[in-house]
Request: fold
Amino acid sequence: MNGLVQDIRFALRQLRRSPGFAAVTVITLALGIGANTAIFSVVNEVLLNPLPFHDAGRIVSMFEATRNFPKGSISYPNFLDWQRDNRSFAAMAAYRWIDGGITGVGQPENVRAQRVSATFLPILGVNPILGRNFTAGEDRRGANPTVLISEGLWKRKFGSNRNVIGQRLVVSGQPRTIIGVIPASFRLQVKNFRTADVYEPIGEETDPAFHLRDSYWGTDGIGLLKPGITLAQARDDMKRVNAGLADAYPNVDGNIKANIIPLKDEIVGDMRSALLVLLGAVGFVLLIACVNVANLLLARSTARQREFSVRAALGASQIRILRQLLTESILLSALGGVFGLILAKWGTTAALVAVPETVPRAEEIGLDFRVLLFTIFVSVLTGVMFGLLPAIRMSRTDISGRLKDSGRAISGSRSRMQSVLVAGEMAMALVLLVGAGLMCRTLVQLWKVDPGFDPRNVTCFEVTPPPSLLSQPPDAILAALRQINATLHSVPGAEAVSLHDGARPMEGDNERGFLLEGQEPPTQQTKNFQQTLEYTVEPEYLKTMRIPLLRGRFLSDEDNENSARVVVIDASFAQQYFAGQDPIGERIRIFEFGSDSNQRILLPLVIVGVVGHVNQWGLVEDTSHPLHAQMYRPIMQSGAVYVKGLAQGFNVFVRSKTALAPEAFFESIRQKLLASNRDMIVYDNESEEAVVARSISSQRFSLILLGAFAGLALLLAGIGIYGVLSYLVEQRTREIGVRMALGAQRLDVLRLVLGDGARMTMVGALIGLVAALGLTRLMASLLFGVRPTDPVTFAAVAVLLCGIALFACYIPARRAAKVDPMVALRYE
Reply:
């Protein structure tokens, strides 16, 4: 320990004597360690840390899988049968999100709302901070309406009053009794679930349609595996359950399977591959930083070779010298780690602010003890990595040779070693630059993709009509919708308006089963049932979204509740089901509710037009999604059951005449609607340009970070080659003087030094190109419209790297060309 303390004190004195060297080394390491720590803090929370739920490893997400939808919604009657007949789950729960306008407490407002089974929160281990969870008796039809509220809503609307239990809250026109307060710490980010302000029992749904076996309503599920039950066993068990349902209900469940996914995998989604690619990329940055510092230490060791020869002559062993040098390098890396932690905190915050929606569990990301241990480990490891080679070389001291060395000579092996390290830097920098280049080309290709509509100057928002409208007959509801449309048209700057329900481009899907003319209803044998995406819109929707009309006509004001039922299909629908023929005038039939939710009818629709295809699933995924067919129906021809649903809420699309400020334009819309009825709730506005941008947020996130890492790697590599050539020029000053004294011209000297740099650069570039050919295949899932081995990207990046590297070589080469032969010949 005394020797270690002496080594540390001596190392500190050495660093104080060389503040420039210490500063450059610490900053270089801080950049590498900080970048690694920042990415690891994201990977740690998203991929490594367990979910903040009790028995999180046993919780799974559950979906109904069909040919088109591996993660389809679950029929509630099917869910009840799953719950009853399975042998592998300790508990199952269903959930779906709903509109949640609340009144009776302060100003009316819309809040996030979920309907969940009584077992949902207990599966996740979530207990109310006040009151209790739902009981099984409350999770059924006919039960007394109850509600759980969030801690945030409790504080905002009830002033944290602990007597809130038992009070009444009107949610979507339904008075409910508050039975509990859910803690603010509860968060869950999965399909069809949003951490809500109000939670209602899902089983108390009064609409009979929800309880039909072929009705889905956006319901998904979670399950808690019994102790000792594996995922494979649970999947086999659910195959048995679904086989029984297929026998009992062949026309509905004949082709239904259960898709069971670990809850953590469902939350992480596609971010896993992106984060692992980024973690590997930032590891290259750290390696480049280590190589740079190793080169600095190799150069610095020349000035200290006589010092260590003297120490060896006085009795210091090779191990003692090795330990001293490693102590210095680890001390430098420790200082780099401290500053790297600061950079990591700033970098993580900046990355999450830039693209927060792409990272699941983003609010939980921080520098916890595991990140701190990672930083300590990386700091020690880097200290050993960059310090070991110089330490070994200096500990092998030729005492007599070094004591006689006048300092004029340069070790050829050391020069070659530094050249190899620089070539390695170049190779790693090129790999990162190729990755960033591929992501850049991916974004360029994505922005060239036509989404099928023009998102510019289009604002979408949601409207919850006054609760009194819920009790009105369908005719009165449709009249109110017409009045809302007229009010929106009177807003200054509004060019086109359409109320909207069903599927929303790039945001939400709404599938509808249909039959072609002449097809019989499906059976287990025929399976004639097809699906299409359904958009329920108004006549100006085409003008609002600027979707091209390809054939026939779009919907008109004459397509109302008193006219023949019509439908407009998209080009994909026409190509898939009417290839080679004119679909105008053809008929399809859809399953529709009759006058109430207890009966289903086959409603015939006449095709009156064909429009362009809209990329419903986003710019990236639309081409790979199995469901492409789309159809448009008039809102005014909705059945009575659907009209009742519109009274609970709908979307509105408005196109402005000019590029108005989105927030100011929306506020003018909101004020206009509220002026017509103060009980209306207008909320959740978003520009369609933001929606399109969000569909490629994962690629943008990867580009931002890969680009930052590639830029940092390029900077470090440039500094590395500049430093090595500067060192070599300094060591070869006498040789250069001799050459010039013997007749060499400045151009010859410039060519000599640039040649050394060019050789290092070319070797590194060739190695990097070979490595990139293999490594970029790992990021294939992140690319769009470009191959992982795209020759244009590889060539452009190689030229860029070589150009910057040669520029870094020019400065020391120019200095060498200005050497005065007389001064150089006296150089010591």
In short: DSSP finds 25 helices and 23 strands in the chain. Residues 406-411 have pLDDT under 50 and may be disordered. The longest helix spans residues 271-313.
